[in-house]
Amino acid sequence: MDNFSFIVGDAGGTGTQWRLVNEGKTEQFETIGFNAYTHNLDDFETNILQVFGDRIKEKIPKYLYAAGIDTDAQKADVTHSLSKVFLGNIYVENDLIGVARSLCGKEQGNICILGTGSNACFYDGEKVNKISTSLGYVLGDEGSGAYLGKKLMMAVFRENLSKDLIDDFQNEYQLTAHHVIKRIYYQPRPNHFLASFAHFIHKHRSHPEIYQLISQAFNDFFDAFFLKGKRTEIPFYFSGSIAYYFADVLKEVGVQRGIAIKTIVQSPVAGLLSYHKQYG
Predict the structure, then answer these.
(1) DSSP string, 176-243
(2) pLDDT class of 251 with cuts at 50, 70, 90
């Protein structure tokens, strides 16, 4: 494998982590994020060209795992478009498949993503099987950064938090409900705006009310995707910034529900690098 060359990327709503292997030597890059439902593909392509430059070679395989690739039509559209940027030989899959291959290899497991958005599936060692529909940040995305931000906004502006927390929030952000509503409804990427408040939540996570908010969000995630109890005896694998930075709360909720969480990583890209070195 020393002379093997390929590019692999993991794209989420906030950013895309890339690894370029050129005859055994590995370089790492980061571009803007991509979600097939919410992002402009032209912007993504432009940024890839800016970051990679002439490092893209025609013959080497390129693998991209991206959020929002839920249908064959989406997969075909993104593959066709990126073929121009990557000079062909590009393979596009859903980000759940990426996490599954990264963390499980050829073993089975329950695969979960908690980042800007959320998703989950059962992986049988080869294919992923959706358990429930994610539904996006308006109707779903339970446990995600956008979901945590939404719950925080509701608690702040309905004054369902202690005065000290509301004061800390306003001292940091100086926001009104009117400003938040305009930002969500009239500006791009409202899910990113909502997820940005995960920083405040993490900073105040020891406060009982914020801890309860986080814990409830993770319970909502398990209720949304695993309430029926199917295959919950199988180990759980998590990827994403929310799962990673709130791992202690996530594990505690898992223990309370009798769920074994085996692995939590911030990004699956290191595991994908190993996967494609081994399996091509």
Answers:
(1) -HHHHHHHHHHSS-HHHHHHTTHHHHHHTTTSHHHHHHHHHHHHHHHHHHHTT-TTTTS-EEEESHHH
(2) very high
